[in-house]
Amino acid sequence: MVEVDQLRTRRQLSPVSPHPQDFLAAENVSLRLLLAQAEIDAQGLLTQAGIDARERETADKLQKLILEELHHRIKNTLATVSAIASQSLRNVPGAEHAQHAIEGRLLALGRAHDLLLQARWSSADLEKIVRGATEAFESPDVPRFTIRGPSVRVTSGAVIAFAMTLNELCTNTTKFGALSVPGGRVEICWELDAEMQRLHFKWAEQQGPAVRAPDKRSFGTRLIETLGKQLRGEVQLTYDPSGFVYLFNVPLASLTTVASE
Length: 261
Description:
Layout (H helix, E strand, L loop, with lengths): L1 H12 L6 H70 L6 H23 L4 E3 H9 L10 E4 L4 E3 H20 L9 E9 L4 E9 L12 H12 L3 E7 L2 E9 H5 L5
Parallel strand pairs: 2-4
Antiparallel strand pairs: 1-3, 4-5, 5-7, 6-7
């Protein structure tokens, strides 16, 4: 820049008009210096961005590694608990039903954890949760589930609650409800109430055997109700003769934040 200033000073002090070549030379020097400074600034920015990018990449890899290790340990724990329950109940008369129920619930919990790992333990889409929970009970030839509803992302705690609830509903319907007969079907749907900021979730069984209310509340029923309360929701079970209906009315805030007692 000193060279440019000197040329400009000489041009201002000289009584004679500067030669065009001198003017071009000064401008070329100025442009060359500006480009050099721009290159230095750009290199500095790129270097800083490169450092930041590498740091983010390292952090992402570390987070992924920790989540995978945590997931692996959780699955091992679930498998150990399942083995303990199986061994403990193996020689207990009439405990086959309890053994299968425990194993089914642990498998459902494991599938929920698989889904959460894919979502980096942040949130998951409700439709994916529903389809993942019902997949093991679906017919490969004739679909028996109708699933529809808007896109809703829910947090990890809600993922587990929904997965466990759906497992109980699927288990019950294959034993006593609509899916216990060839022509039975289940409709699963949900809708958003934007004004009230709530989610209305519905499970309705159709074309199954006649339904009647149980004589006493089973553990599965209590589990369904407890899971609903954990999310600050309202659970309604209707034993209509034409088909069992489960209704779940829950605040959207409970699905996007961790509900605490």
